[in-house]
Amino acid sequence: MWVDQFHYLCANFLKPGMAKVKSSAKHSNEKLLDLVEVQQKTKSFFAHNLQYVNIIGGGILLVIAGILAYYFLYQKPRQERAVEQMMLAQQQFERDSFRLALTNPGGGYSGFLDIIDAYGGTKTSNLAKYYAGVCYLNLGQFDAAIDYLKDYKASEAVTTITKWGTLGDAYSEKKDFSNAISYYKKAIAAGNNELLTPYYIKKLGLLYLYQKDNANALSQFVELRKQYPLAPESGDVEKYIARAGGSGDE
Predict the structure, then answer these.
(1) Among 66, 68, 114, residue whose Cα is nearest residue 88
(2) What is the fold, at CATH topology level, of the domain defined by 154-250?
């Protein structure tokens, strides 16, 4: 009896297991054959298209070489010449000789406007746009100031704050207070700078006060006192808080 049971077990349990092993082995062989086929096809592709592969690889190398040549043989020397050329214009700017700084700083050197035209695409040309904007602002040519300041591409927090803030000044001088407020807000939001941020908070507060918008003016002065109590702009902030209708308890 037990022999019959043993045969029954073998017939019903061991055979399926063996079938699974065979099936698994067959599946593995199929995968191996697929892999070999893929490798053969890949080799065949490269054998038949080697010329095109070489052309593409050579093209990539040529592009990289072109970029490096453009930077080291063209753009970098232009940047160095621009820095040298702008040196005297910066000196005139520091002396508040804004018209000379723009067009004729002397000594055969270029003014900011010539730097912008002759060395476009360089960092110095971009910086010259900011200088030109500030020059025109001080010369009372506010539209020109706005154009150059907007073209200037700020790359870090400090220059971004300064760009927005100076645009606020230009619009304020034009009596375009809506845009002035907008740009002062951008300057304040651009970064937490201990020197510049309180300066523009106070400017914004004073502009609100000038417009008799006491509620917004008060909020700026209170913010100044709270966030930057040691800043020079906070030295007389209580006076402006009082003017805006606030008190020491605000």
Answers:
(1) 114
(2) 1.25.40
